[in-house]
Amino acid sequence: MNSPFSQEVLAAARVMVIGCGALGNEVLKHLALMGVGRLTVVDFDRVEADNLPRSVLFTAADAEAGRPKVEAAAERLRQLNPGVTVVPVNGDIACDVGLGLIRQQDVLIGCVDNRWARYCINRLAMRAAKPWVDGAIDGLEGTARVFIPGQNCYACSLGPEGLRDMSRRLSCAGVVRRDIAAGKAPTTSVAASVIGAVEVQEAVKLLHRKALQAGELTSLCGKMFYYEGRHLTTRLASFRAYDADCAVHDEWMPVRHMPLTTATAAGEALRLLKRELDEPAVSILLADDCFADYVVRRDTDQRYEVMLPGRRVAAYVDSLAALRGLPFSNLYQHEWRMVDNAFPYPELTLGQLGIPAQAVLPVDTGHGTYYIEIE
């Protein structure tokens, strides 16, 4: 039977892959070989020796040099298919990828190893109204799912236990090291090849919207594909969750563009926004993080200047000799969750506040919220 997929559609497609481990390697390899025109690869990690038994795109030289995974992967992908444009993004999907970049994609593919990263992908996908495909592997088992705004939501599928454990990282690198130490052959690459292929198949289906609407193709949306390799069993389970009251479904539309960058000072950004929106007062909402200017020891009231996005405060505090070993619960963090006329640091740039390039800023005017994409 002939392929149901169009090479013209694939060549014009823009796909973002988040996670460049074993699963991400397989997904990227398939997408490049199929001729997807533009691949954006997101990961914050570096190649290590433990990655080599399960990652087709990495070499021993990459591990010795400690190269960023996205750079090593991009180089191999260009060798596999020189006609594919590969954009490496060395950062964390939770805080380093602007919604403007997400809006440029046709489909997102998640190849991450923890619930928090999936939650962040889902949040961005919902804001940008983009479908995304999720995959997970564990030994000789794996799952694949599809989430489409308005139909299926990862956040809605998390129960109380899932929300509580969302920040846990369950890296497969530790599994590989454990198996090797026990004299076992690691199986991660086998499960990754199976689930990665299913993820790519489902993503490519999403690119062919007309065929899906006509019933020529069927999406995995609302179902979960489960693979178990010990006894070679597979099954499809119903997996649809969409709560109308879920706050994550907030679609950030319409989006306006303004000549702001991460190098723009906060005070200047407020001035330009007031002029562009013709509003006497505006507030830039720090929707996913905060800006912390200082922390205070609860027992001594001693104040320590921080001046960092909230996500970086804990690591900075650990680096201070005076606070080393002190439980973070013994500190009070003073923070800002919006930038307006009362913000005391107008000279700080948007980048220093933790806003990434191509971010979309929610701007409250008192008469409604505008969404402004920076350059």
Describe the protein's architecture and organization.
The protein has 375 residues and is an alpha/beta fold. 32% of the residues lie in helices and 23% in strands. It contains 13 helices and 16 strands. It has an eight-stranded mixed β-sheet with strand order 3-2-1-4-5-6-7-8, with helices on both faces. Strands 9-16-15-10-14 form a five-stranded mixed β-sheet, with helices on one face. A hairpin with a 2-residue loop joins β5 (132-138) and β6.
**pLDDT below 50 for ≥5 consecutive residues: which ranges?**
none
Question: How would you characterize the largest beta sheet?
Answer: 8 strands, mixed
Strand content: 15-25%
Termini separation comes to: 46 Å
Helix count from the secondary structure assignment: 13
Structural class: alpha/beta
Secondary structure: number of strands: 16
What are the secondary-structure elements, in order, as H or E?
A: HEHEHHEHEHEEHHHHHEEEHEEEHEEEE
Give me the side-by-side strand order of the main sheet. Answer: 3-2-1-4-5-6-7-8
Please state the CA-atom Rg, rounded to the nearest Å: 22 Å
Mean pLDDT across all amino acids: 92
Fraction of helical residues: 25-40%
Could you say which overall geometry the principal axes of the C-alpha atoms support?
Answer: globular
